Amino acid sequence: MTDPLPSPAPLDDLAAFREVAAARLASFERVAVPDAPGLRRAGVVLCAVEHEGVPSVILIKRAYRGRNAGQWGLPGGRLEEGETAQAAALRELHEEIGLSAGPADVLGPLDDFPAASGFAITPVVAVLADPGPLLPSPDEVHSVHHVSLRRLAADDTPRWVPQADGGSLLQMRLGPDWAVHAPTGAMLWQFREVVLLGRAARVADFVQPDWTRH
Prior knowledge:
Keywords: Hydrolase, Magnesium, Manganese, Metal-binding. The chain has helices at 9-12, 14-26, 85-97, 149-153, 184-196, and strands at 40-51, 54-62, 72-73, 76-78, 106-109, 113-114, 119-127, 141-148, 158-162, 168-175, 178-180. It contains 5 helices and 11 strands. The protein has one domain: Nucleoside Triphosphate Pyrophosphohydrolase, CATH 3.90.79. The chain is α+β, with helices and mostly antiparallel strands. A hairpin with a 4-residue loop joins strand 6 and strand 7.
């Protein structure tokens, strides 16, 4: 049964969102990808902030060079030696866009996503009440964007595109000419379902476009 979202406060007020999100993540039983030969790990942040008076999540378009050139993503990156996924995600948040977050800002993780690129990606949800100015690294980030919680929760945001093999490809339609696919789209979709709408959802089997393998 769906856990009704108290309306409208958690989608329109960052403090109210934090309270609801923390409770839902505390009861969420996440699925972790087990270690395996050749598996690499990464951490990313679903970072909620207030943008122009509206609670929003930060997305980036990666620089047009290196891994994932020009793709939509969440701030984050691969783990360094001895680092946890949460520590890596918060470190990369600062390195990529200049925002500082600590453990107290993190509400909890969602499921690991087994990316076709060979990475297991751990998304952590964080809320920054006073994030400070964005300082994107030009070496890693082409541009920074905000998507409102209401846009993520809207009925017409997820779109399922039939594939020749009988499966469906998720597109998170965040704006005109703005569609985000798995892996990032899958993590946004689980965030939407579990954290915003209070519904059970898994994403490990979501179809990933071929161009996300690089």
